[in-house]
Amino acid sequence: MSESNTLGQVVAFGGGHGLFSTLRAARALLDTDAITNLTAVVGVSDDGGSSGRIRKAFDVAPPGDLRMAITALLPNGPMGDRIGAVLQHRFPSGESESGLEGHVVGNVLLTALWNEGASTQQGLDLLGSFFGVRGRVLPCSAEAIDIGAEIVGIDPHDPISTREVCGQVAIATTSGRVAKVWIEPSDPQASLEAIEAINQAEILIFGPGSWFTSVVPPLLVPGIRTAVVRSSARRILIMNLSEQIGETTGFTSADYARSWLALFPDISLDGIIFDLDQNEGAGQCEQAAQSLGAKSFRMKVAFHTATHDPDKLADALRFVAQELGSK
Fold this sequence. Notes:
Blueprint: E1 9-14, H1 16-31, E2 37-42, H2 49-58, H3 64-72, H4 78-87, H5 105-115, H6 120-130, E3 136-139, E4 146-152, E5 162-166, H7 168-172, E6 177-184, H8 192-200, E7 203-206, H9 211-215, H10 217-220, H11 222-230, E8 234-238, H12 253-263, E9 271-275, H13 282-290, E10 295-299, E11 302-303, E12 307-308, H14 310-324
Parallel strand pairs: 1-2, 1-7, 2-3, 7-8, 8-9, 9-10
Antiparallel strand pairs: 4-5, 4-6, 11-12
């Protein structure tokens, strides 16, 4: 870890609302100089909604999770809030024929930058520079990725049969249990900037978020995974507050831990943050963490039981990082 009381350079992985919460927390630490540099490594496998339509129409990376990460890193204050509201604005669906129905302003802006000749990364950097974003948003790969999964129990008449499904939306809404997950193509070109950020990081943060469709996919990119395995950074997992109906129905902390171990036996964890008010007791959380060789931290980090509180999560990340120290 860096000298004095700073936590050094931080890389956060994932996508969607989970990564948004993590980045809001880490951005608060960046604002107080508690961390020196912040990078988001974001999945590019979304195939639904506005992102899915844009991805299909223009053969570009799905912009939604990337746009959400940029929004999370906007400056604090009324102006940042206004800009965020615009970037997140979704045109209402209806019977008009404008073509904008259901699209999000930030997605459209990113697509325009890419259509004007900017690379995936150049477009992200430009959009961030327009609005004074602190930190950097990197796709795990410049090319769009598909997620595939083997699902057990989709057929209620044959609960042990398996079926392969493809696509983030299909996996997120499955009625069965995810037994295996992979990406297509299996070896996409990893972002070189992301690999460099991982190499320089002192803290790597995973989660929270949709487990198989947001938290896991960036680590399935071989180049990203190799960089994480080789990294000397401390690795912190922010545990989900609850199951997600569909892909993780019925999951407990132990299930998440077993899933991580099955998917990433070569990626050890140092600390896991659990919310103090989760239904599971201290013993269950401790056992889940110990199964991964990690230390358990039970702290108040949630708004009620629905979402993580960025301010509380920021305090927790600072505390956990300092407790873990340097490798």
